[in-house]
């Protein structure tokens, strides 16, 4: 069985959204060879060029032991650091993939990006789309088709000047979120406690991204959350939680075991949710056209009316944008609030900036918010400490490359261990300490930019980056202006676990003490 699993997974490569399951699988079933000396990776006195065979290697049994007996299966981020100590900056995991964990090596890989960068095999995600005849989205598409798709999706989203236009829409969502926070506090016994903050931020992020993509409000921040949105959230969880089982079980067992059915039902829920909203928007556009009215609008209207995309392709892309835009932003915000609650001096400094940058009764615009260096540094540092996408991948499909002095043939898969990289002690002294000032442009030496690239890099980098940043800046500004955020003493130590993205290991409760600034 183990041999079969190892073989069947050999061709699969990691990417963050085929993500943890495959990434974990790669680590789980990584290579059968013996570990060679870690010092081999560091030797410079070689007359023959070093190759992949000279790299330190993790054996299959070692990995099983670590995952199962040492419990790293949901602590992949800690495993990255552990293996860095054991094997050094570059090593082989046996699935013909090569893990790197320093900013310098990451930079070498990213600077080699090809015209159509590839993160790995997405066949698991493609299966559902093929079954239903939907187009591939930005995660699943490859090669030139991916490039053309990205050219369309980038418009109205990726450039800072594009995201600025969504400031008003996001601010409306933020206003509703703050109202909800007041309501939730009132319901608590202490009058200021909000329980399960991560879930609240999840609803915020879904409302935010949906208001941009669909130009419509879902009502996730109302007192009663609409049933459809909860179904969508559950569907995402179902798809992710069954992915691993689907990867490690053979295709022939799909009708015998429950995992495949649940996995597909998860996708069904995600797509149904997106399709209903897209179809509604199409009817709306059609009506406007029939009435000879102008067809103007935001993102989805642009995709439907200004591009050559077929409806089925729009379904595929919008579903993937929606999926990518919720867990990432919401978990980053949860980590940020947690860090601020534990570091009152940093929160005070942030409040200082927030309360002096714009008049007290003024809601900052998208342009104003980007002029607040400390606020941006707080988010950047939170993403360094908790990079929600803790690992990524690149495969050079067209060329041989030299990385870290080793020669690699084309099609070598590189695993980018982002968590270990952004905790690299040489780049970030005291890497486990929250220090937003690292990122200030106040004359101090700034860290190597490749030390923390939470949104990836280059043409295949995150398409939603600007939107995500804007959402996070605007909501953090308002929360800090209104409330002093304090930890709940009843909570134990909060740790991260890796479940597709880096999430807290327990429910996060926080006190939101009213500063008395705004009604
Ligand atoms: C804190 C928030 C976010 C983080 C940390 C994040 C991180 C990432 C990372 C690391 C990648 C891979 C990039 C690479 O391979 O170089 C990525 C890709 C992607 N992200 Fe995000 N993301 C965030 C929010 C969003 C949002 C809000 C959206 C949707 C609007 C989004 C949509 C996507 C898409 C579609 C891709 C695939 C791009 C492609 O393959 O062409 N992300 N993201």
From TrEMBL:
SUPFAM superfamilies: Cytochrome P450 (SSF48264). GO terms for molecular function: heme binding; iron ion binding; monooxygenase activity; oxidoreductase activity, acting on paired donors, with incorporation or reduction of molecular oxygen. GO terms for cellular component: mitochondrial inner membrane. Keywords: Heme, Iron, Metal-binding, Monooxygenase, Oxidoreductase. It holds the Pfam family p450. Coiled coil: none annotated. InterPro entries: CYP11_CYP27_families, Cyt_P450, Cyt_P450_CS, Cyt_P450_E_grp-I, Cyt_P450_sf. Heme binds at residue 462. Its cofactor is heme. GO terms for biological process: C21-steroid hormone biosynthetic process; cellular response to peptide hormone stimulus; cholesterol metabolic process; cortisol metabolic process; glucocorticoid biosynthetic process; vitamin D metabolic process. Belongs to the cytochrome P450 family. This is Cytochrome P450, family 27, subfamily A, polypeptide 1.1. It comes from Lates calcarifer (Barramundi). The lineage of its organism: Eukaryota, Metazoa, Chordata, Craniata, Vertebrata.
């Amino acid at each position: 069985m183990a041999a079969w699993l190892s073989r069947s997974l050999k061709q699969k490569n990691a990417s963050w959204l085929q993500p943890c399951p495959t990434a974990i699988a790669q680590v789980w079933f990584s290579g059968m060879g013996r570990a060679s000396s870690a010092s081999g990776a560091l030797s410079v006195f070689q007359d023959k060029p070093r190759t992949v065979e000279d790299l330190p290697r993790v054996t299959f049994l070692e990995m099983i032991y670590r995952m199962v007996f040492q419990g790293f299966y949901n602590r992949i981020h800690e495993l990255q650091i552990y293996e860095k100590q054991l094997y050094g900056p570059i090593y082989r995991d046996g699935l013909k993939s090569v893990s790197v964990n320093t900013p310098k090596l990451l930079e070498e890989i990213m600077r080699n990006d090809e015209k159509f960068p590839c993160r790995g095999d997405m066949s698991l995600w493609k299966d559902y789309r093929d079954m239903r005849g939907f187009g591939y989205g930005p995660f699943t598409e490859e090669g030139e088709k991916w490039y053309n798709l990205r050219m369309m999706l980038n418009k109205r989203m990726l450039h800072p000047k594009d995201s600025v236009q969504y400031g008003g829409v996001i601010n409306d969502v933020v206003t509703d979120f703050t109202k909800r926070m007041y309501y939730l506090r009132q319901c608590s016994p202490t009058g200021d406690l909000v329980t399960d903050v991560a879930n609240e931020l999840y609803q915020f992020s879904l409302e935010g991204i949906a208001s941009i993509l669909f130009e419509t409000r879902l009502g996730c921040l109302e007192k009663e959350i609409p049933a459809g949105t909860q179904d969508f959230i559950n569907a995402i969880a179902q798809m992710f939680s069954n992915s691993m089982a689907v990867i490690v079980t053979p295709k022939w067992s799909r009708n015998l075991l429950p995992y495949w059915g649940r996995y597909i039902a998860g996708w069904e829920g995600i797509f149904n949710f997106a399709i209903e909203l897209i179809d509604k928007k199409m009817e709306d556009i059609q009506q406007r056209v029939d009435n000879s009215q102008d067809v103007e609008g935001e993102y989805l209207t642009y995709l439907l009316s200004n591009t050559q995309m077929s409806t089925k392709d729009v379904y595929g892309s919008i579903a993937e944008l929606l999926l990518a835009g919720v867990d990432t932003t919401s978990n980053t915000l949860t980590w940020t609030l947690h860090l601020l609650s534990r570091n009152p001096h940093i929160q005070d400094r942030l409040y200082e900036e927030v309360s002096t940058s714009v008049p007290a009764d003024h809601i900052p615009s998208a342009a104003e918010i980007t002029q607040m260096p400390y606020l941006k540094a707080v988010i950047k540092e939170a993403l360094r400490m908790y990079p929600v996408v803790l690992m990524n991948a690149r495969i050079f499909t067209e060329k041989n490359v030299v990385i870290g002095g080793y020669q690699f043939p084309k099609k070598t898969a590189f695993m980018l261990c982002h968590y270990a990289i952004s905790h690299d002690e040489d780049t970030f002294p005291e890497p486990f300490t929250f220090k937003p000032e690292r990122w200030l442009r106040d004359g101090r030496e700034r860290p190597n930019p490749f030390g923390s690239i939470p949104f990836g890099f280059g043409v295949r980098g995150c398409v939603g980056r600007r939107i995500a940043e804007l959402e996070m800046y605007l909501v953090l500004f308002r929360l800090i202006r209104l409330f002093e955020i304090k930890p709940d003493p009843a909570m134990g130590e909060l740790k991260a676990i890796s479940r597709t993205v880096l999430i807290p290991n327990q429910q996060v409760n926080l006190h939101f003490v009213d500063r008395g600034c705004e009604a």
